[in-house]
Amino acid sequence: MNKEVLLSQALERPGNKIGYFVGEQLAKRFPDKYVLETSSFGFDRFVRAGHCAALHDPATFNQIETVWHGPEFALTMRKQNAWANVRWRNHRLDVVQLQQSEGYCNQTRFWIIADSREVAEAFYRAVCEWDHEVRQEILVFENGYLVKSQELYQTIRTASFDNLILPAQLKQELREDLSRFFAAREMYEELNIPWKRGALLIGPPGNGKTHAVKAIVNHLGKTCLYVKTFVNQYEDENAIKVVFDKAREMAPCVLVMEDLDSLVNDKTRSFFLNEMDGFERNHSIAVLATTNYPEKLDPAILNRPSRFDRKYYFNLPTELERLAYLKLWNQSAKSQVRLSEEGMKETARLTNGFSFAYLKELMLTSLMRWINQPIGGAMDAVTRAQVALLQEQIGTTEESAAAAA
């Protein structure tokens, strides 16, 4: 059976039968070679990085999907079904790649054809070991899969404590706590204490928790695994195990879980607690989590010190903190849309009960209103009017703000 017929006949079969058929046919076609099959293989990334050379086999049709990511990005090519001739370290290999459907998702399988088992396994190991490393990326777990995100990495690189407005003591504790933890390995081992840490950031939405998480990760400079959701097409319990197992492989690392109250539910709580209680298995892992609604967390998660031994509370910003935020905004704004000194003080006074997120919304909507009537020096009045509109949305008024003061 020639290569083209082999691929075509394989793709006519049900997804759960493709693997056996291809493996059997390759063994018959290459009796003097070794065939290694796998479904986990960063082959394309390895090729793009220049660690081996790969050309499309001219005897087969290689199905390539072109992907558009937006007007500011280049088109990318993604192999769907292909046969490649590979040169690596003076070895010649073939790599066959086919997609098969399982339920509602597609899975890609690979077959490495080499002169010997040693060469096939050495190539496979070289690709996996290279792909395992995280380089200027953040590893993200979402929909049951681990993917590397350069975009999130770049976003985190711009976050710092310098532009994070928090009470001085809270900011200092956030900056220093996990730094001291990672630096204290010998002390933990000397005292026979499990070298792991859990920190939970608690407070209403929009008050700087996400910014603080990014600033901490950037400040530490450790590898990071970011969990968006445990929900996937299989079992959420298995996803929790996959995440913690990967964190242990990457250690020392920071495991980030934003909105923990939405990540862990009644069904998965016991599995999550078992993984958090890994003790020695969680050696050198810092779990950094946030929650907007601590009352939704099970007491076993919220109150047991061995799980989250440090808790940091993010309250609504004070008038001085709101003023500091407005000054930062002014520094980055064009001169014609800046608030005056008195305008900043008045806005800070009027916005009691506003989170940082609402302050940002206030300034953006005020800027848009100003654009409709671009009058120099009018930003104070525009912002004052916009405060009243946003107060209606969040249920605050100047009178209630004064009463609260």
How would you summarize what this structure contains?
The chain is an alpha/beta fold and 405 residues long. Helix content is 45%, strand content 21%. Strand 10, helix 9 and strand 11 form a beta-alpha-beta unit.
Number of helices: 17
Report the sheet-strand fraction: 15-25%
Percentage of residues in helical conformation = 40-55%
Number of strands: 13
Q: Describe the biggest sheet?
A: 7 strands, mixed
> How big is the Rg?
27 Å
**Average pLDDT reading:** 88
Which word captures the global form?
globular
| Structural class assignment | alpha/beta
Poorly predicted ranges (pLDDT <50, ≥5 residues)? 397-405
Q: What are the secondary-structure elements, in order, as H or E?
A: HHEHEEEEEHEEHHHEHEHEHHEHEHHHHH
Strand order of the largest sheet: 8-7-10-11-12-9-13
End-to-end Cα distance, whole Å, is: 83 Å
Give an account of the 3D structure.
It is a single chain. The model is unreliable at 397-405 (pLDDT under 50). The protein has 17 helices and 13 strands. The longest helix is centred in the C-terminal third of the chain and has 17 residues, at 356-372. The protein has a seven-stranded mixed beta sheet, with helices on both faces. Strands 1, 2, 3, 4, 5 and 6 form a six-stranded antiparallel beta sheet that branches. Strand 4 and strand 5 form a beta hairpin. With 405 residues, it is α/β, with parallel strands linked by helices. The relative contact order is 0.08.
